[in-house]
Amino acid sequence: MPESAARELKRPPKVSGEKPGIGHMEEFDVNFARFLMRCNAECGELAEYNMAGQQTVLMSGPRAQEAFLKTLDKQLSRAAAYQATVPVFGKGVIFDAPPDRMKTQLKIQVDALRYQNMKHYATIIAQEVQDWVADWGDEGELDFLDEFIRLTLHTACHCLLGSDFRHRMTEEFKALYHDLEKGLQAIAFVDPYLQQPLFEARDNARMRLQELISAIIAERRANSDVEYGDALETFMSGTYKDGSLLSDNEITGLVIATMFAGHHTSSGTAAWTAVELARNPEHAAVVVEELDALFADGLALTFEALREIPRLEAFIEEVLRLHPPLVLLMRRVIEDIDYEGTLIEAGKTVAISTYGSHRNAEHFPDPERFDPDRPRANTPELMWAYIPFGGGPHKCAGNAFALMQLKSIFAALLTQYEFELVDPPESYQDDFSAMVLKPSSPCRLRYKKRH
Ligand code: HEM
To answer: Does residue 380 have a cis peptide bond before it, meaning omega lies within 30 degrees of 0?
Structure first.
């Protein structure tokens, strides 16, 4: 996006319904995905709304989304838009680090999710899934959102911090993680430093978690000849340009940031995949047939075995179209921008909505229909319309990990069990009460052993 020249530029149209003092905050809080769709329907490609004084411009449609996703941090800053994460990830970590250090930290984070580690992670995940279903018996009923939240916390912790930590994982760790999560509610995006019990609990949890992780770091440094193959090992060996290692604070921050990026995005998608499989039996049958053929001769769930499962992949992609866990992506405008003759001034926030984009009937005809066979990212136009993992320089670093994990879970489940809904199909809805989309609770499914 070029910077604004001196010529006369238009201003983005404003969304109706603003209230004194709070702007559109109230309507946003009720259901932000629907609110963003209203903004787009009313104003078109650019729509300006007001979040308690923070003017925000929603950019909709493939062209505007491409511009948003490709623009570099120095003009559209993620750091300034995601300041709420600073007390959670830690001072000096990612969005609070100077640009050079942030770049290195992100590179080290990406390294931890690289191809070589993925083989090790695939083994861990297959084992975790096997342990999870071990006591299911022949049939039963479970809340699959709760189940997947627990399962993916275990897999994330195991892949990030190693087997010892995972197996010693205490209730204390879960409580600390929970307090950190609560510290990222919508109010934190207005001011993350308000005097609030919620934020005090967040800060205490951050401190204690660092003590726990520092203890593992010290233990590992004392046994430096052992190879772990997990993310912590990559974080501990990464260096800045001058050769210095990351501090315990920075390593703790990277662990938390990776956990936050990967945990609820994965659990919500897994839960929605289970629901859509049960709700669309004719499409599910095609996936089951594919898996039965692939694993017929007792093939193990290795990384290699998981590489290409096209029907299951198409099914998951359609789940991500209808239920993209990260609904809203944001940046702060650092330098005025001229978007095709419209001025978006420095200081404003810009946003895109994956949810709205994926429900645009122009690109996805009959958008509410679940159809794994529809075109999604395979044309140049759809490439910037289908954006569950974002795009451009900050496209999801855990994309391959997330898909591998989902394929591992459903390959294991569907070759052993069949599933059906417990409640009426329409009662399973998107829940927008947190920043990451998930199915509404309860999310009950019945399972039965296949013969
Ligand atoms: C279905 C699951 C997932 C979805 C839909 C998803 C989606 C996204 C999206 C949309 C972004 C871009 C955010 C932006 O531009 O502001 C992103 C970034 C990121 N994701 Fe994911 N994610 C998923 C799973 C994961 C997992 C499992 C991990 C790690 C284990 C992960 C790690 C990351 C990281 C590190 C970034 C930041 C990349 C950067 O700043 O350069 N994600 N993700």
So the answer is: no
Residues 293 and 248 in one domain: yes
pLDDT reported for residue 168: 77
| 112 and 177 share one domain | yes
CB 440 within 8 A of CB 411: no
Q: To test ligand 1's pocket by mutation, which of 115, 269, 396 has the most ligand atoms within 8 angstroms of CB? A: 396
Any atom of ligand 1 within 6 Å of the Cβ of 65: no
Report which protein residue has its CA nearest ligand 1's atom 34: 397
Q: 46-68: per-residue pLDDT in tens? A: 999 999 899 999 999 999 999 99
Q: Which amino acid is at 202?
A: R
Tell me the CATH number at 77: 3.30.43.20
Residue identified by tokens 């391959």 is 400
Average pLDDT of 404-414? 94
Domain that holds residue 382: 1-90+327-387
Confirm if 325 and 435 have CB atoms less than 8 A apart. no
439/319 Cα distance (integer angstroms): 11
With a 6 Å cutoff on the Cβ, whether 398 touches ligand 1 is yes
CA 136 – CA 449 distance, rounded (Å): 9
When pLDDT is averaged across residues 278-282 and rounded to a whole number, the result is: 97
For the Cβ of 262 lying below 6 angstroms from any atom of ligand 1, the answer is yes
Residues 58-83 have a mean pLDDT of: 93
Average pLDDT, the chain: 93
Q: Angle CA(401)–CA(407)–CA(409) in degrees, nearest 5? A: 100
Q: Looking at 350, 371, 387, which one is the last position of a domain?
A: 387
Whether residue 374 sits in one domain with residue 405:
no
Q: Which of 387, 406, 421 delimits the end of a domain?
A: 387
Sheet containing strand 54-59, strands side by side: 46-51, 54-59, 349-353, 328-333, 76-77
What own/partner pairs with CB < 8 Å and gap ≥ 24 does 224-231 have? 228/162, 229/117, 229/120, 230/117, 230/120, 230/158, 230/159, 230/160, 230/161, 230/162, 231/112, 231/113, 231/117, 231/159, 231/160, 231/161, 231/255, 231/258
Same domain, 367 and 349: yes
Distance CA 134, CA 407 (A): 19
Name the DSSP class of 10: B
